[in-house]
Design a protein that fits this description.
The complex is a heterodimer of chains A (about 110) and B (about 110). With about 110 residues, chain A is mainly beta. In chain A, about 0% of the residues lie in helices and about 55% in strands. Chain A has no helices and eleven strands. In chain A, strands 2, 4, 5, 9, 10 and 11 form a six-stranded mixed β-sheet that branches. Chain A has a five-stranded antiparallel β-sheet with strand order 1-3-8-7-6, with no helix packed on it. In chain A, a hairpin with a 2-residue loop joins strand 6 and strand 7. In chain B, about 0% of the residues lie in helices and about 50% in strands. The N and C termini of chain B lie far apart (about 35 Å). Classes of the chains: A mainly beta (about 110), B mainly beta (about 110). Chains A and B meet through strand 5, strand 9 and strand 10 of A and strand 4, strand 5, strand 9 and strand 10 of B.
Amino acid sequence: GQQLNQSPQSMFIQEGEDVSMNCTSSSIFNTWLWYKQDPGEGPVLLIALYKAGELTSNGRLTAQFGITRKDSFLNISASIPSDVGIYFCAGSYNNNDMRFGAGTRLTVKP
Amino acid sequence: NAGVTQTPKFQVLKTGQSMTLQCAQDMNHNSMYWYRQDPGMGLRLIYYSASEGTTDKGEVPNGYNVSRLNKREFSLRLESAAPSQTSVYFCASSEGVSGELFFGEGSRLTVL
């Protein structure tokens, strides 16, 4: 089955720093999604990617769909305290079997 | 709009008891999903339904059954709960294949 490896597992950064996290898959995807989860809530979509090589921004967030179709990364620039949470990648290939990475827990120190 | 609504939000069961988690969406989405979330393991897909009348197994279907009652509702049933099923369960919906998932707030289940 599809395996998603997300790294790093956790990050502790200072407010204002940039953040980078990534996901790799054992098989190719045609959709990569990035989500953020706050405590006690469901994940909320940040960025959706549908094309190999695609680079998409949403405010201070930038994500890319890897050219091999087996990886994706998410960058957060100039982090702020409200960026704290767990970030998940998710991917699928032409079906509804959407798999998630284990998550990156981000802590931002003021 | 309420989006995706799950009930109950919290439940405690004894080993061997049964229960059903209910999920409803008001976005007219075709696809619905059930995930479980355990510490350090992200979200794992239990079952999904690509459209009304169809259901498919995901990554961890054992011990669960699902019913796509109509386009709006997708329920998850535990016939004989086990402590290993202690988890937070999330329902989600999407418009179509490989589409963006919209999640409910989660249902926290504890099996003693």
